[in-house]
Automatic annotation (TrEMBL):
Record's protein name: Phosphoinositide phospholipase C
Annotated binding of substrate, by residue: 23-50, 436, 438, 515, 546
Active site: 308, 353
Highest taxon in the source lineage: Eukaryota
This enzyme's EC code(s): 3.1.4.11
UniProt domain PI-PLC Y-box: residue ranges: 486-606
Domain EF-hand span(s) in chain numbering: 138-173, 174-209
Catalytic function, reaction form: a 1,2-diacyl-sn-glycero-3-phospho-(1D-myo-inositol-4,5-bisphosphate) + H2O = 1D-myo-inositol 1,4,5-trisphosphate + a 1,2-diacyl-sn-glycerol + H(+)
Membrane topology: Peripheral membrane protein
InterPro entries per record: C2_dom, C2_domain_sf, EF-hand-dom_pair, EF_Hand_1_Ca_BS, EF_hand_dom, PH-like_dom_sf, PH_domain, PI-PLC_fam
GO molecular function, one term: phosphatidylinositol-4,5-bisphosphate phospholipase C activity
Length: 756
């Protein structure tokens, strides 16, 4: 679908015309509302009726929903609300619009199945088309939308007053003299307003990139354009790529917009800008975007994207528990989710945060959601971490649901005919679900015909037991009875108590794993001098370790995951529901390798001969000293922080942060630019000394400077340092929740060089 020719697309026309749908909030609140797509093709319009108490009058209001804010469109009764408030007979008529972040789902019902299908397929089509637009197209869309909003009387002309309003819309504070100067330059007809070609001239002046001109003109040595040889020189000298003439030719073929230039094998400035805005010009190495790592190593050789208290949508004292939280985590390629299981009413086990007033969700419903969404965005295995507080009877029901709902996906016995000595690989476990929990006996009992125990007692796992701050006091470690049926499906992830590294080495099999509260884990990971961190690394070469946040984090805040990865811990569980710097680091760590939720650990965290200690660096294969040079050049179309404040313009600054081994941790920031979020220019150089690049993460933070209060976050981006491309690169920006901010970005120059 091409937005420049909307009239040719039947699905788009269907949405532009719109229609009535039933909006469903509860069993008693089901109301007809009219929905349609706005002409900008990026906004869904719907009416909302509000009753005003004093005189009980009902008034229609217009509500706008940005297509960019939609995470997915789900056909059928696939949301908790629709399952609860509608009858199975209307399954085919229902669909849900799921939003990014904490915005509530929109549950809708069409008059028939055909109409529902049309809404779902058409919305998905528009959503896909928008996400596939190039950065350049998104940028143009954004600017054109702002122009449309500024054209108050909708006459397709822009007066000086409307021009000033437009500049505020795009986050630029311009003094009156400068605004008048631009206006006069473009108003060739002296009519007092801009129209047609004059608006195009104004747009070109506005979007002109001086810094790109400088780079382009340096290399455009052939009749004012870049020849194939000029482009190759740029790729070799500035971008430090192992490029050939064929590579340069492919870029011209792919990005040059002028056919005459293309035939001459030339690249114009417009083509050059197109190249810089696509993946070849991005900071992230395109070779690292798909699955590129060896996925045939044992499971414990990988960092695994992991969630804590997955069932919570908000905090862990009173927040709602929901299957939606599992769906969100799994579709973000989280590969280890947590289930806190308790006895529920009517013999049905439930999941919630024990001893609190968080709401409950049925165990059965969670397993169904996991079955449906486990492998939507990654084929690699999912681990279900069970914290079991149930009676034997309800445990038997849990085992029944796991086996009957998950079917062949559930791993119920070890691979092969003999007792394994190591984990299978993520590749071998594709499409499989593993259970982590207590087991009544050793795994080899399966092969010794010794697996006849019916039930027994095990120590109860209770991660919230260290919790304080007003929560109900909980008993000390207690024993619970464990049902054989639940015990038997714990194969590669048997939970055991940690009693020291030596004890684990001597007494525990590779499949026996411990969970560490953050304080215990940090104590082991960050103690230098007594070889604890080296012992931890060696422990993780043979076994899995799971780290979880302290129970005292009642607001579901997070700890820094980097020191845990530094010692090779695989399952570093974070509160996915809490947007934070720690989640940005997690998103950056798992950004590459197909965002599959698995990242191969460096070789020095896998080799038994390694003596790597992140806290006391010695010579070894991990020590690859680099100097990282970075120039923060400019920003593009940074969003306004306070959209409600009509005249609010940002004063942006950029902070560049390195996270890795303690010796590499560093942070440097630019000065702030006053009143310009549209095209701020910093041109500031920074230098970082890097010792262990394979563990280093690079994070960009853009903030709105404030003299009187803490700076507000504008956007951020994080990625592994080893996935950074050298040269002139664009950096996309994400919101605090990790969603892409359309058309916003930074332009930087980077060089990661061997230290002299």
């Amino acid at each position: 679908m091409d937005f420049t020719n909307i009239h040719g697309d039947a699905d788009l026309q269907f949405l532009l015309i719109g229609g009535e749908l039933v909006k469903i909030r509860s069993s008693s609140w089901k109301k007809n509302r009219f929905y349609k797509l706005q002409e900008d093709c990026r906004t869904l319009w719907h009416e909302s009726k509000k009753t005003f108490r004093r005189n009980q009058t009902c008034e229609s209001q217009l509500r706008l929903v940005s297509i960019d804010d939609i995470e997915s469109v789900r056909k059928g009764r696939q949301s908790e609300g629709l399952k609860k408030h509608t009858d199975p007979s209307v399954e085919e008529q229902c669909f849900s619009i799921i939003f990014k972040g904490r915005k509530k789902n929109l549950d809708l019902m069409a008059v028939n199945a055909e109409e529902a299908n049309r809404w779902v397929s058409s919305l998905e089509k528009v959503k896909t088309t928008i996400s596939n637009l190039s950065h350049q197209q998104k940028s143009e869309h954004w600017i054109i939308n702002c122009m449309r909003k500024a054209d108050k009387n909708e006459d397709n002309k822009m007066t000086l007053k409307e021009l000033k309003h437009f500049l505020r819309q795009i986050n630029v504070e311009v003094d009156d003299t400068y605004a008048e100067e631009i206006f006069k330059k473009c108003d060739k007809s002296n009519s007092g307003s801009l129209e047609g070609a004059e608006i195009k001239h104004f747009y070109d002046l506005l979007t002109h990139r001086e810094e790109i001109d400088v780079i382009y003109n340096k290399y455009a040595q052939t009749q004012g354009q870049m020849s194939l040889r000029d482009l190759l020189n740029f790729l070799l000298n500035e971008q430090r790529e192992q490029a050939t003439a064929e590579d340069a030719s492919k870029l011209i073929e792919k990005y040059e917009v002028d056919e005459t230039a293309k035939q001459k094998k030339h690249m114009t400035k417009d083509g050059f800008l197109m190249y810089l805005h696509h993946e070849e010009g991005s900071i992230l190495n395109p070779a690292h975007i798909p699955v590129y790592q060896d996925m045939s190593q044992p499971l414990n050789h990988y960092y695994i994207s992991s969630s804590h208290n997955t069932y919570l949508m908000e905090d862990q004292l009173k927040g709602p528990s929901s299957t939606e939280a599992y769906i969100k985590a799994l579709t973000k390629s989280c590969r280890c989710v947590e289930l806190d299981c308790w006895d529920g009413a009517n013999g049905e086990p439930v999941i919630y945060h024990g001893y609190t007033i968080t709401s409950k969700v049925l165990f059965r419903d969670v397993i169904k959601a996991i079955k449906d969404y486990a492998f939507k965005t990654s084929d690699y295995p999912v681990i279900l971490s069970l914290e079991n507080h149930c009676s034997v009877e309800q445990q038997k029901l849990m085992a029944h649901y796991l086996i009957s709902i998950l079917g062949d996906a559930l791993v119920t016995k070890p691979f092969g005919d003999t007792m394994p000595t190591n984990f299978p690989s993520p590749e071998e476990l594709k499409g499989k679900i593993l259970i982590k929990g207590k087991r009544l006996n050793k795994l080899d009992a399966i092969f010794n015909n010794n697996n006849t125990i019916e039930e027994g007692t095990v120590s109860e796992e209770d991660e919230a037991a260290d919790c304080e701050n007003g929560q109900k006091a909980k008993p000390k470690k207690s024993k619970i009875k464990l049902a054989k049926q639940l015990s038997d499906i714990v194969i590669y992830c048997k939970s055991v108590h940690f009693s020291g590294f030596e004890h684990a080495k001597d007494s525990h099999g590779f499949y026996e794993m411990s969970s560490f509260k953050e304080s215990k884990a940090f104590n082991l990971a960050e103690t230098s001098g007594n070889l604890a961190s080296t012992a931890y690394i060696h422990h993780n070469m043979d076994k899995l370790s799971r780290i979880y946040p302290a129970g005292s984090r009642t607001n579901s805040s997070n700890y820094n995951p980097v020191p845990m990865w530094n010692v090779g811990c695989q399952i570093v569980a974070l509160n996915f529901q809490t947007p934070s710097k720690e989640m940005h680091l997690n998103q950056g760590r798992f950004l590459t390798n197909g965002t599959c939720g698995y990242i191969l650990k460096p070789e020095f965290q896998r080799s038994l001969s390694s003596q790597f200690d992140p806290n006391t660096l010695t010579q070894g294969p991990w020590m690859k000293r680099k100097t990282f040079y970075i120039m923060v050049i400019s920003g593009q179309q940074l969003p306004k922080i306070n959209k409600d404040k009509h005249k609010s313009i940002v004063d942006p600054l950029v902070r560049v942060e390195i996270y890795g081994v303690p010796a590499d941790n560093a942070s440097k920031e630019t000065h702030h630019i006053e009143n310009n979020g549209f095209n701020p220019m910093w041109n500031e150089n920074f230098q970082f000394d890097i010792h262990v690049p394979e563990l280093a993460m690079l994070r960009f933070v853009v903030e709105d400077y404030d003299t009187t209060s803490p700076n507000d976050l504008i956007g951020q981006y994080c990625l592994p340092l080893t996935s950074v491309q050298n040269g002139y690169r664009h950096v996309p920006l994400l919101t605090k929740r990790g969603d892409v901010i359309c058309s916003a970005g930074l332009f930087v120059h980077l060089m990661l060089l061997d230290a002299q």
